[in-house]
Amino acid sequence: MSDNHLIELKNISVSLGGEQILKDLNLYINDKEFITLLGPSGCGKTTTLRIIAGFLRPDEGEVIFGNKKVNDVPPHKRQVNTIFQRYALFPHLNVFNNIAFGLRIQKRSKEEIKDKVTEMLSLVNLKGFEERDINSLSGGQQQRVAIARALAVNPKVLLLDEPLGALDLKLRKDMQVELKNIQQRLGITFIYVTHDQEEALSMSDTVVVMDGGVIQQIGTPIDIYNEPKNAFVADFIGESNIIDGIMPEDYVTEFAGQRFKCLDKGFAQNEPVDVVIRPEDVDVVPLEKGMLRGEVTSVTFKGVHFEIIVDVQGFKWMIQTTDYEEVGNKIGIYVEPDAIHIMKKSKYSGLYGDYSSFSDEIDLLSDVTYEEGDGNG
Amino acid sequence: MAKGLGKKLITAPYTVWMMIFVIVPIALVIYYAFTDSGGAFTFSNLSYIRDYSRTFLISIELAVISTVICLLLAYPLAYSMSKMSAFKQQTMIMLVMLPMWMNFLIRTYAWMTILEGNGLINRAVRAIGFEGFHMINTNGAVTLGMVYNFLPYMILPIYTVLTKIDKSTVEAAQDLGANRFNVFKRVLLPMSIPGVISGITMVFVPAVSTFVISKLLGGGKTFLIGDVIENYFLGNTGTINYNVGAALSLVLMILILVSMTVMNKFDNGETAGGVI
C-alpha cells in the first residue's frame, strides 16, 4: 500500500501573517488518484495545494514526492502543474503559444511542439483555436486552454484550485464530467480543491474534508456521506439533522426522550453522542404510527421533493418527502435503524444540524462563496 | 431632446477649449509654414530644412541616446520597485516624484552650478589633487540634463504596468518550468512592453524638441532644432521669421508622429506575435 504513495505530507504546519493556517497536517496521495480537498473558506485547502506546488514552504513538516523530500525544490523543478483559480493565462500570447509555453522552456523541437499543442487542443475540444487571442475567449474556453497548457508538459500530478468556480452551473456540470474523463484517460493524479461538496462527491476517488487547518475526515465519497466522523462533516456534506443523544448500550440510542435501534456499538455506557439522520432517510407516516410526532412549520418545493421543517419537541428537523404536507399539519416520523448514524461528541457538537435557524445558515453559506473569491481559501 | 442638449452643454467648454488651444494653433502653424512674409502661398519655407539637416540629426541623436539611457536606468529600478513592500514602494514613488515638484528651469540651473568649470564636481576633484574636467557646454551635459529631467516619465509608466501584472501569471510560468530568467524573458518583459512604449514616447518627444536644456547646459555649443525654432520666433529682430519657424515645427511634428506610429506598430507586433 505505502509503495503506491506518490506524495506524502508529514506533520505540515504553516502560519501566514501570525495566523496558523495548517496544523500538523498528514496526508498521502496515491498514484492515479482523484483526490479532493473540500472545506469552507480559510480551511487551508488552497494552502495545502500551494505547498504541493512549491509556491509555499511549510514552517514545519516534510513534503515527500516518491521517496524524496522536496521542501526546498522550487516550483519550476517539480513534476506537478497547476490549474489556477482564475486560469492565469498569458494575455500577451495566443492560444497556441500559451499551450506551447512549457514545451518551449523544455526546448522541444518545433514539430514536437506543434504536434503536442494540436493533440492538447483536441483533448480539450478547442481544435482550430490556435491563433485566437486569449481575451477573445469565453470563461469556459479559457478554462480549457489552462487545462491544455498544464497537461502539455505531461505532469505526473495536476493540481486544480477551484477550477470551475467562475463558470455557470450548466458549464460547470459539463466540465466536471470532462475533467473526470481526462483524468481517467491520461491516468494521472488529480488533486482538486473545492468548497462545493456536490462537486467533490461526484468526481473524487477520495475526499479530504478540512476545517480550521485540520483534516476532519478522509474517505471515499460514499464513506464521507454515510459515515461522517463529526458534526462538521455531517453538516458540510449534504443536509443533516444532528440531535443530542446518548448510547445506553450497544445497538441502542436514546434521543428526543425515546430509545431507537441502531447499528452502532463500542461506546461507553450512556456516553453522550451526536445522532445524524439525513433528511431523505426520514419517513413521514400517519401520526399514530410515528416514532416521534411533530408539527410542520415550513414547506419548500424543490422539484424532485418537498423540503419540510418539522418541529419535534422544540428541535426542528429537516425532512425530504415526495408527499405534500401543509404547514400546521401534525405528522408522525419514522426512521429505520440503518438511517441512524452515531458520532462521538466533538468540538463541533451543537453547532450544526438544527434547522430552527435555517435562514442564518444560508447567510453563512453565501459568506463562504464570497470569501472564496479572494483566492486565499 | 433635453438630455442630448444637456450632454452637449457639458462637453461644450472642452470642445471650445480644444478648438482654441489645439486645433487653432496647429492650423496657424500650417498657415505660416506655407506662406511668405506677405501672406502668399509658398513651399520655399520648407527648403530651409536642408540648412538644418545636421541640427535635426543631432537633436534626434541626443534624444535617442537620452531615451535609451532613461530606459536602461528606469527598467531595473521600476522592476525592483514593483517587488518591494507596499510602504517601500510608496517611499520610492515619492523620491522619484520629488524633483518634479521643483521648477524645471531651477533644476537645470542647478546642474549648471554642478558641472561648471568652478562647479561642485570640479572643486571636489581639485580638492583631492586632480585636474578639473570640462563638462559644461558639451553634448554630454545636454544628454545628462535630458536624462535627469525626463527619467521619472520613463520610470512611472513601466512601474505601473509591472505592478498590474497578476502574480498568478508569474506563478503559472514557474509552474510550467520557467526559472527566474525565463519568467522575466517570457512573461514580465513582454507584458510590460506597453509601459516601455509610453515611457519612450514621454521621454523622446520632449527630448527631441527641448531648447532650454541645450541652451543652459550646452551653452550655444550644442544647438538643437528646438533652439533653431525658438530663434525664429523669439530671436533678434533681424532673425525673426515666423514662416520658417512654423515650417521647421511642422517637420518636427511630422517626424515625431511618424516615430510614434512606428513604435506603436512595434508594440502591436510584439503582443500579437509573442516571444518565440
What is the oligomer described by this structure? Answer: heterodimer
- What is the typical, i.e. mean, pLDDT of chain A? 89
CATH class of chain B: Mainly Alpha
Order of helices and strands of chain B: HHHHHHHHHHH
Looking at CATH, the homologous superfamily of the largest domain in chain A is: P-loop containing nucleotide triphosphate hydrolases
Series of secondary-structure elements of chain A, N-terminal to C-terminal: EEEHEEEHHHEHEHEEHHEEEEEEEEEEH
How do the strands and helices of this protein lay out in sequence?
The complex is a heterodimer of chains A (377) and B (276).
Chain A: E1 5-16, E2 19-30, E3 34-38, H1 45-53, E4 60-65, E5 68-69, E6 80-83, H2 95-105, H3 110-123, H4 139-151, E7 157-161, H5 169-186, E8 189-194, H6 197-203, E9 206-211, E10 214-219, H7 221-226, H8 231-236, E11 241-249, E12 252-255, E13 258-261, E14 271-277, E15 282-285, E16 292-301, E17 306-312, E18 315-321, E19 330-335, E20 341-344, H9 358-372
Parallel strand pairs in A: 3-8, 3-9, 6-7, 7-8
Antiparallel strand pairs in A: 1-2, 1-4, 4-5, 9-10, 11-12, 11-14, 12-13, 14-20, 15-19, 16-17, 16-19, 17-18
Helix pairs in contact in A: 2-3, 2-4, 3-4
Chain B: H1 2-33, H2 53-82, H3 86-97, H4 104-115, H5 120-127, H6 139-164, H7 167-175, H8 180-209, H9 212-218, H10 225-234, H11 242-273
Helix pairs in contact in B: 1-11, 2-6, 2-8, 4-9, 6-8, 6-9, 7-8, 8-11, 10-11
